[in-house]
């Protein structure tokens, strides 16, 4: 489209001029509007490339620029095309995965840091692809969000998790005080029928609302304002517990948190990983103090070491989850953890793990010795 372009630097200068011009406000009906442009650049050396291929590649680069944020430009390279094809294949497979029953729910225990007892589980979706094996949630969840498939997947996870917790409650008295935590995606949360969906699922599965804890990221709550308040209040009145997930990574207004009917804050694992670094410990301390003043529980995500566990206990954090206790596991392995909890063996294992090694490693060692 541009004549006299000798190399990428020339195209880059044109892109920068376009963005500079767009920085100026546009007048519309007496108001000033500001827009930004995401620009993709495909440099052609005048070979045998077809126009449609050039447009496709520039379009691919443009979407890469959009993914980096506003007012960006990117030059196309072959890796972008390969990545786009991979995403397209994942999206295609994702649309069939539900019908083919390729999804499964794993459960990660949430542990009381003071008593060492299991107080609940978080339900986490996993995708077992018939050819690629387990696909990381970080790889398919964003695509599911973008395509809207996350709504169908999320409803399925919610129902499976509620069914599983009800089944455990019938079989193991110790689980009757436990809660099952389920994540609500942004698109799920924004559905006008979300409250009805949750309550219908509880009725169908026979799970008491007090046994369900829904996790919503703080950014979703803050961005949706009055809508979020209305939805959360309805769920709270129904007896469902509510938790702010990934707390500390967004831009929460502390005064807003006081008004939302949440019962818990989950400290993002990025803070827990660096908790020994002075400033990060102070951030965790501040969150714990804030939660106490508001009468909220605090759950630390991503606990992996004894040092992290000891520091969190010293800071007064009530609950935690992470590989130190157990990775997310399937229904059968989670049931075994519940059986150990009922016999008082989970607490014993935790004590041995505190002496050295993770609980998961200690469990594996005991299993191998048997």
Broad CATH class of the largest domain: Alpha Beta
* CATH domain fold name of the largest domain: TIM Barrel
Question: Which spans of ≥5 residues are poorly predicted at pLDDT below 50?
Answer: 360-370
Biggest beta sheet attributes: 8 strands, mixed, barrel
Query: What is the general shape?
Result: elongated
Cα distance spanning the termini? 71 Å
- Our count of helices gives 15
Q: Please tell me how large the radius of gyration is.
A: 25 Å
Mean pLDDT equals: 85
Helical content stands at 40-55%
Strand order of the largest sheet: 5-6-8-9-10-11-12-13
The CATH homologous superfamily of the largest domain corresponds to: EAL domain
- Percent strand equals 15-25%
Word description of this protein:
It contains 15 helices and 13 strands. With 370 residues, the chain is an alpha/beta fold. The N and C termini lie far apart (71 Å). It folds into two domains: 8-76, no CATH class; 92-369, EAL domain (TIM Barrel), CATH 3.20.20. The chain is elongated. Helix 3 (78-97) crosses helix 4, helix 4 packs across helix 5 (149-171) and helix 5 (149-171) packs parallel to helix 7.
């Amino acid at each position: 489209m541009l004549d006299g372009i000798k190399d990428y630097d020339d195209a880059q200068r044109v892109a920068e001029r376009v963005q500079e011009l767009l920085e100026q406000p546009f007048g519309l009906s007496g108001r000033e509007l500001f827009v930004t442009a995401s620009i993709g650049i495909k440099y052609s050396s005048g070979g045998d490339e077809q126009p449609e291929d050039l447009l496709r590649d520039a379009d691919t680069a443009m979407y890469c620029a959009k993914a980096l944020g506003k007012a960006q430009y990117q030059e196309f390279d072959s890796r972008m095309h390969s990545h786009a094809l991979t995403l397209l294949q994942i999206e295609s497979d994702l649309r069939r995965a539900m019908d083919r029953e390729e999804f499964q729910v794993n459960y990660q225990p949430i542990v009381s840091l003071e008593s060492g007892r299991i107080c609940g589980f978080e339900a986490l979706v996993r995708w077992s692809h018939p050819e690629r094996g387990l696909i990381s949630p970080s790889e398919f969840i964003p695509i599911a969000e973008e395509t809207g498939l996350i709504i169908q997947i999320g409803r399925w996870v919610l129902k499976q998790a509620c069914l599983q917790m009800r089944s455990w409650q019938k079989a193991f008295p110790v689980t009757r005080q436990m809660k099952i935590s389920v994540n609500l995606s942004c698109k799920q949360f924004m559905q006008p029928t979300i409250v009805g969906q949750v309550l219908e699922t509880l009725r169908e599965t026979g799970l008491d609302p007090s046994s369900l804890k829904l996790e919503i990221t703080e950014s979703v709550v803050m961005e949706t304002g009055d809508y979020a308040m209305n939805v959360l209040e309805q769920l709270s009145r129904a007896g469902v517990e509510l938790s702010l997930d990934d707390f500390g990574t967004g831009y929460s207004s502390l005064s807003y948190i006081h008004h939302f009917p949440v019962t818990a804050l989950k400290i993002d694992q990025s803070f827990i990983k660096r908790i020994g670094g002075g400033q990060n410990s102070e951030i965790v301390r501040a969150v714990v103090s804030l939660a106490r003043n508001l009468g909220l529980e605090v759950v630390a995500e991503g606990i992996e070491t004894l040092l992290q566990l000891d520091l969190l206990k010293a800071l007064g954090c009530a609950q935690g989850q992470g590989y130190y206790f157990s990775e997310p596991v399937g229904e059968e392995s989670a049931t075994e953890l519940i059986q150990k909890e009922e016999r008082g063996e989970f607490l014993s294992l935790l004590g041995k793990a505190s002496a050295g090694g993770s609980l998961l490693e200690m469990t594996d060692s005991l299993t191998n010795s048997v």
